[in-house]
Amino acid sequence: MNIMNDIAFIIIAIAAVLLVAFLIPALIELRKTLKRVQTFMDTTEKDISTTMVELRATLENLKSITEDVETVTNNVRGITSSLEETVHILEGVKRFLNTVQVETNATIAGLKEGIKTAAAVFVKNIVSKGG
Predict the structure, then answer these.
(1) Tens digit of each residue's pLDDT (9 = 90 or more) over 55-100
(2) Rounded distance between C-alpha atoms, residue 90 and residue 74, angstroms
(3) What angle do CA 72, 75, 78 make, to 5 degrees?
(4) Is the pTM of this model over 0.70?
(5) What is the rounded CA–CA span in Å between residue 116 and residue 110?
(6) How far apart are CA 115 and CA 82, in angstroms?
(7) What is d(CA 20, CA 26) in angstroms, rounded to the nearest whole number?
(8) Distance (Å, whole) CA 115 – CA 5
(9) pLDDT tens by residue, 25-34
């Protein structure tokens, strides 16, 4: 039984040595991979920090542009309102001028007829009284 124990111990020792022999390269590769992952994470973190700074600047620019557009839009609304008021005023002036024109035409027509009638009466009086 002693020999059996020695053989089992030798087999276990050989298996352990073989296991360690296979695990050492795997552990070395795992260590290299972990270093590469750490380097990637450090680089990515720096890139993300830079990107976040640029993104914040871009968002601030976008906010400023939005505020400028809002200001311009408000100004355009004010101008549009002023133009609408001007159109209403001009329409009122047009109506007034049309009314004045109609009244003036009527007055001129009346004067014209009055002068014609007066001339006819004057000529008739001169002709009938003989001069």
Answers:
(1) 999 999 999 999 999 998 988 888 898 889 999 999 999 998 888 8
(2) 24
(3) 155
(4) no
(5) 10
(6) 48
(7) 10
(8) 154
(9) 999 999 999 9
